[in-house]
Each structure stands twice: as structure tokens, then as C-alpha cells.
Amino acid sequence: MRKTLLLLLLSCLAHVLHAEDGYDLWLRYKRIDNNMLLTSYRKTITAIQVAGQSPTMDAVKKELEQGLNGLLDTHITVTSKVAGNTLIAGTREALTALKLQDNQTPAEGFLITSKTIDNKHYTIITANTETDVLYGAFHLLRLIQTHQSIENLHIISSPRVKLRLLNHWDNLNRYVERGYAGISIWNWHTLPDYIDDRYIDYARANASVGINGTVLNNVNANATILTAPYLRKVAALANILRPYGIKVYLSARFSAPMEIGHLKTADPLNDTVRQWWQAKVKEIYQLIPDFGGFLVKANSEGQPGPQSYGRSHADGANMMADAVAPFGGIVIWRAFVYDPQANDRFKQAYAEFTPLDGKFNKNVLVQVKNGPIDFQPREPFSPLFGAMPQTPLMMEFQLTQEYLGQGTHLVYEAPLFKEVLDADTHAKGPNSSVAKVIDGSLYEHTLSGIAAVSNIGNERNWTGHLFGQANWYALGRLAWDYTLTSEQIATEWIQQTFSNDPAVVTSIKQIMLTSREAVVNYMTPLGLHHIMGNGHHYGPAPWSNNAPRPDWDPIYYHKADAKGIGFDRTASGTNALQQYQPAVRQLYADSNTCSDQYLLWFHHVSWQHKMHSGRTLWNELCHKYQEGVDSVSAMQQRWEQLKPYIDPERFHQVQMLLAIQHKDAIWWRNACLLYFQTFSQMPFPASYEKPDHTLEYYQQQHFPYAPGN
Ligand code: BDP
Questions:
Q1: Residues of the chain with confidence (pLDDT) below 50
Q2: Is the pTM of the predicted complex or chain greater than 0.90?
Q3: Does residue 180 share a domain with residue 87?
Q4: Are residues 113 and 235 in the same domain?
Q5: In the chain, N or C terminus with fewer CB closer than 10 Å?
Q6: Which ligand 1 atom lies nearest to the CA of residue 375?
Q7: Which residues, listed in sequence order, are joined to residue 170 by a DSSP beta bridge?
Q8: pLDDT the model gives residue 209
Q9: Domain region containing 49
Q10: Which of 245, 255, 251 is nearest to 290 (CA)?
């Protein structure tokens, strides 16, 4: 009781001093609130020495100073003399000059080690590159933020994946497609002259989790970004991000040679077109010598592409790859394609891309969404993973929660990412996980990458929902090391963002770790998918049947009728299952053995079908929807109990959003079940709360101004 009161008092005091608005993300650097640890940290590090001078080493010094001054509540000495109890950071080369080099420095990544020389204690961060030293500095700060001992360190950490990228879907007018956190952080109007502090803090946050590249603009690209005035703006951002090891990439519109180059064609095999791209690329590299390359969405959802000229995706990608190759650039070509004529959208990307395996240039990666449809709450892994051995495939995840409750639902996505990365493709026998395809190890590719559609906007706390920050954080951590568990990542994030109090950590972790299954259950349980509202994708609309294309309509996906529900993708249906290896196919092929999670992804199942639980499918569906709602109630209750331990601003914000999430979960449950009941004609089980509105009521809800559309 006394402890609670004291905590309350302390938290009030902290509030007066500095309102917590979430801007500082996981880099809050608050004074260590454990005196024993604080004393030990202060003893271990009394000074810092940063070897070498450069914009990156200046960033290392600034971050260590800011971090240690805050965490140790001290004024850390910056020294140039080697004295005891010093934290020394520098590249291997710089430390050789100090006679401190260590031959365990990894080729990529960093080494943090404690050393005693002449009875003096040193903590040394070293690496081959300055950026890797910066990653090491952030790692050391993380150790302190998460209350770990730093007296006797020997840490070697190397990234598993080379390209760790954010994809901004930001338009030049600052509107963010599928963005729920305000408008774009890139203020194109005031660039290149005005440099918002936010750009620097964005760079710090990314570097702190190892993100090393960013695609600044929407894949539905506007060619204007490739004009000279905009390239100068891009160059200004590249200059800010460079010291933090972040390369800039651009989404390129395939028809740019026509739109801004005034050519008659964008045919990738036309010489004038090729010359246009070569000149454009030269212009870019003159401004941005370390420009990363292009991301391209082509012949997808109305975007221009090589197929308009009878050419293949490989022809298009290679033409651009040829242009960037002399400068060390790459092309990331998206595999997100589907055709309204096809009988199953699931099969499309595989059908179009597998025949092109081996036809892409060396500096092309094909970027594949995690699942075959589109970032749904749960999808089986895309069958392309493991099916293009000669092509480096890059993972595309979505941080912005287009299909996961958008800006108002708390959904921790690491379990979703892990589920996909850990899935076994069986492409080269067992243990051929998607992660091994992605990191290049399965087929010995040197290029490898993970990208995620950003959830960042200009809202004060960056991501709109405070817990969206955890997804950004998790993306970086997993791209660096996908063997980390969702729980480890959540723990770190909570400790840095909220508190190291074990009770607080356990409780928030519980909320986070149950949140993904909750959203699956209250939106699309048992393998349902794509049953949200058309266009804006907000809320349930399983009845929707009038989109401009059949494959944008929910009825295309759930196929509910008097007999049952679900999409038959077995041999008796579209046979999409054929695209997987036999061992994977076997997991899903039989509706009696297929796991509940994927049942309606692959089978049209009778309402009376007996589930593993012993319930009928109909009752199981009701049960799952109810379970989803109940999970959100449990999340709310847990959050309420955290009130004394969390600053009032962030507590209240999350509290209000959880209330919306609860309301929305009930809405999803009721709307979906009332609609599916028109087919099943079966009663709701007794345990299920009766809907408070009619189906017609739900069908009449319209959201013309839902954000992000
Ligand atoms: C869909 C989004 C759409 C994107 C598209 C894409 O609804 O806004 O443009 O993906 O990834 O999920 O290109």
C-alpha cells in the first residue's frame, strides 16, 4: 500500500516535470530508479571516449552523452585520454591506434566487451564500420535501460538480414495512404531548406533498432519525386539520415519517362527510355552518392508497368537495375500482383513470378508480402517463399494496421511476423523456414532484406496509437535478429517505454502477447479473410458485393452459402494448395486435419462440420468471435490495474483507445455473425451475448471519411 502511494506520488512529480507524450519513443533515457544498479552503472562508466571524428561518430558521442546523462542522472565526462572506468567507442581501425583492438570484431555488427588493463576497467564498443559502432552504442544504452549488468560484457551481435527497410506510403501532398498517425512526417513544401528536428529523431529511432534504409514515398508513386526540385529535397533528407546509417530509396513510377521526360513510351526495351533512366539515375547519384535504389509497384492495381508493352516484370526490373548498377544501387520489385479475371487471387503472384526465376539481374530483389492476399490478421505464408531459388526474395510486412484495427486497436504484430518467418516452406526439405529464404542462407544469396510499410506520421507520438511504436520497434529488432522471441522484444520495449517494474512488465506483456490472437478472433477467426469494408477497409462488411472488381469484395473470399462457408483451395476447388511443397500441402489439404486457424482459408466447410473442439463449425465461429471480444475486455481490465504505475497522459490515451477497440470488437462480432446466420440458419449458442442491433443496422453504417483511404 505504502509502495503504491509512494509510486503515485513519484509519478505525479514526474508528470509535473515532464508530461509523457510518447514523443521520446523507447529512447526516454529516464534516471535509473534502482539505486543499487545506478551506483554500479555510475562506477562502471564515469567517462566516455569516442575515437574518431565524423558525422556518425558525432552521433555516437551525442547519443551516449544524452543517454548516459539521463539514465545515470549525471554529467558524463567526455575525454580524449585513456583512463579507467571509461566507455570507449570506435571502429576497429580507430581502436588499433589506441592499442585496444580486438580480433573478435565481427565482419558486420558490433562487439561490446569489458576489459581490464593495468587494473583499470574499460567498456569497449567496436566494429568495422562507424554505423556498426553506433548500433553498439544503442545496444549498450538498451542494456542499461533494461537494467542489465554491464560490468562483465562480451557481446557479439551481427545482423541476419542486410536490408532492413521502412516503406513509407507517403504522398507528396503529405497524405499517407493507409496512414492513421496524422500526415506525412516529410514536409516536402519546406524541404530542402527547413530541417525539422523530427527527421533527426526519426533517424535516431531507426538506428537504435538497426533499420538501415527508408523508402520515402508511396508505392503508388508520383513521378514528380524524380524531378530536379524534389530530388534536392530528397538529398536534404539523405544528408540528415546518412550519419545514422540510413540510406534513402525512392518508389519509382514506371511511366515517369513519359510523365516527366515527355517520351512517347515507357517500354523498358526502348533505347530512349533506357537512356532516360540512365540519365535520371546519374542525376540522382550526383546529389545522393549513396542512394539505395528504387522500389517499384508495376502492373498492380492500375499502376503502369512493363506488361503494358508486352514485356515481363523481369524486363522492367532489369532495365532499371542496369541503370543503378554502376552506382551500387538496387531495384526492389514488388510481387503484389493480381488480376480480376483469375479464379483465385491467392495464386496470382506465384503464377506470374515463378516463371521469371533466374531472369532477374543480380541487383534485383523481389519483394513479397507475407501472405498471398494482403496483410490480413492471419494469412498462411506466401507460396512464393521457397519457390524462386535463384532470386533473392525480400519480405514485406505492414506496420500500419490497415486490416488490424487501423489507428485505434492495440495489436502487437511481432507474433504475426514471427509466425510467418518461422513457417517451414519445406523447399529444401524440413527446416527451410521462410526466415532462411529471406536471409539468403537457404539459397546462398548475398542480398537479403525485410521491409515493412511504415506506421509513422506527424502525430506527437509518431504512430497515433502508442502501442504502434512497439511494432516499429519489433520490425527493427526482428530484421536484425529474427531468432528473438516476440516476448523478448515486448519485454525490452516495455522496459524502455514504460517501466522496469516486473509487475508492470508482466501485465503489459500479457496485453501485448494476447492482442494479435484477439484481433484474429473478433475480425476473421478460423481462416476467414478480407471481409472488411470496401475501399477504406474500416470495420466489418462481409455482405459487400458491389466493388469495381470481384476480388475486392468480401463475398469472393468467404463464399458463405446455405451449405457452409470458406474458400475451397484444395484440388476440388482452385487448387491453390498445389503451389506449396507436398509437406505443407499435407498440413492443409484435409478439412479434418487442417488446423482451425487456416480451415476457411482452404476449405468450404459445412455449418455442421465437427471441429477439433467437438463443436459444430457454426458454434465454433460464435465461440471464437466471443473469445475475441472477451480478450479485449481482459486487455482493458489489465490496463485499468496499471493506472498507478503509468503516467496519466499515456494511461488515459490507451484507456480511451481500448474502449474504442472493445466497441469495435463487439461490432465485428455482431455484424459478422448476424450476416453469416442468414446462411447457417442456426441459433446463437447460449454463451454468446445477443447482438444489440439488427443486421440492417450494421449494413447501413457508412464511413466516407475513414482515414487512410
Ligand atoms: C493494399 C492497400 C493499397 C496499397 C496496396 C499495395 O489497400 O492501398 O496500395 O495494398 O500494397 O493493401 O500496393
A1: 1, 12-17
A2: yes
A3: no
A4: no
A5: N
A6: 12
A7: 176
A8: 98
A9: 16-157
A10: 245
C-alpha distances out from residue 488 to 143, 148, 301, Å:
13, 14, 38
| Residue 529 shares a structural domain with residue 663 | yes
Same domain, 284 and 371: yes
Question: From the CA of 543, how far away is ligand 1's center (Å)?
Answer: 21
Tens of pLDDT, residue by residue over 508-546, are 999 999 999 999 999 999 999 999 999 999 999 999 999
> Residue 594: inside a domain, yes or no?
no
> Separation of 259 CA from ligand 1 center, angstroms?
22
Q: How far apart are CA 68 and CA 72, in angstroms?
A: 5
- What are the strands, taking DSSP E only, across 24-81? 47-50, 77-78
**Residues 223 and 324 occupy one common structural domain:** yes
CA dist., res. 217 & res. 176, Å (int): 9
390 and 526 share a domain?
Answer: no
- How many angstroms separate the most distant Cα atoms in the chain? 82
Q: All 3 cell numbers of residue 227? A: 524531378
Inside any domain, residue 587? no
User: Is residue 72 assigned to a domain?
Assistant: yes
Q: 433 and 291, same structural domain?
A: yes
Mean pLDDT score of the chain: 95
Give catalytic status of residue 481 as yes or no: no
- Residue 345 Cα to ligand 1 middle (Å): 14
Name beta bridge partners: 452: 166, 397
CB 402 less than 6 A from any atom of ligand 1:
yes
Beta strands 605-606 and 564-565: pairing type?
antiparallel
58, 322, 374, 627: which is the annotated catalytic residue?
A: 374
